[in-house]
Amino acid sequence: MNDQIQNILRKGKIENATESDRKKMLALFHQPEKEFLLKEELLEELENSFENEEFSNDMQKVFYRIWSNIKKSEPKQKSGLTWFYTTLKIAAALVIGLFLGIYVTSVNSKTEPEYYAAHAPKGSVSQTVLPDGTIIFLNADSHLKFSMEGKKGMREVFLEGEAWFEVAKSKKKPFIVHTDTYDVEVTGTRFNIKTYKDENEVTTTLEDGSISVQSTENFKMGENIILKPGEQLVLNRDTKKATVKEVNTKGFTSWKDNKLIFINMELKDLVVLLERKYGVDIEVKREKIMKLHFDGTIKDESIIEILEIMKKTLPIDYIIEGQKIEITNSKN
């Protein structure tokens, strides 16, 4: 570790430090070329405060993973996006701090599990990195509650809405996702769960690895359902019937990359999707057009651009009244 940084930090942190020493310490946080060394030094100090080796290893993984992603995202030349990457670095530092706080609390609590929440409001997609390195993307209008030391010491997540998971492997500590119907248990894999309460179907789509879908009090099965890559489990809330089928997983996970693919989707379902993605209210004025079907892909288009494409493809029209979009049948 850089001796100069250690010396400045040591002098600036003592109780009777001079104003000059404190200013030198704070100035370190404004020098990009020393940013990595500084954060590494602070991380090392925190690790030395704990005897828990697993804690130290987990924090190192998170720190270097986030830092690696930041460096890959940086432009090779200076540009007008410099402010964005600077903001990203600050955000990453705050996220690391948040993870440390979460994990410390969890380690110190030996009685009841500590749970923490994440939320993606309508019109947005959010990303969360757990202390073990697990990556979670939350789709719009979704809620997540998680603990690294849940019941029986498992990694535990409660999901309402839709989320994509890339779970860090750990044979000693399984990862389980609770929905309002069934549970999904895994040791390390990539999969997607969609469980909005206002939708009649709950779907779990496996990209890589293996997952076990298990019974709960709300949904009883004769035995666990093991999914293989490329398979999707669909549960009908009304009939309690679960079916497994092979699918192209990209059509169900591309939303995390800000891309939506829909094939033969009814207008009534498309409206719900658009409301979540763009954070708008849409009202269909004619019941008979609710069952119209639409194929398409959304990447960077605005809601107005999407409505114009739909207008050219389907016999519909639309008007905007205040904060609401009204869709009706075309007069042609």
Write a compact overview of the structure shown.
The chain has 332 residues and is of the alpha+beta class. It has helices at 3-13, 19-27, 35-48, 53-73, 82-108, 250-253, 267-278, 303-313, and strands spanning 116-120, 126-129, 135-138, 142-147, 155-166, 175-178, 183-186, 190-195, 201-208, 211-214, 225-227, 231-236, 242-246, 260-266, 281-284, 293-298, 316-321, 324-329. The protein is globular, with a radius of gyration of 24 Å.
Task: Describe the fold and architecture.
- With 332 residues, the protein is an alpha+beta fold.
- The protein has 3 domains: 31-108, no CATH class; 116-252, Jelly Rolls (Sandwich); 259-329, 3-Layer(bab) Sandwich (Phage tail protein beta-alpha-beta fold).
- The chain is built from 8 helices and 18 strands.
- It has helices spanning 3-13, 19-27, 35-48, 53-73, 82-108, 250-253, 267-278, 303-313, and strands at residues 116-120, 126-129, 135-138, 142-147, 155-166, 175-178, 183-186, 190-195, 201-208, 211-214, 225-227, 231-236, 242-246, 260-266, 281-284, 293-298, 316-321, 324-329.
- Strands 1, 2, 3, 4, 5, 6, 7, 8, 9, 10, 11, 12 and 13 form a 13-stranded mixed beta sheet that branches. A 3-stranded mixed beta sheet has the order 15-18-17, with helices on one face.
- α3 (35-48) runs antiparallel to α4 and α4 packs antiparallel against α5.
- The protein is globular.
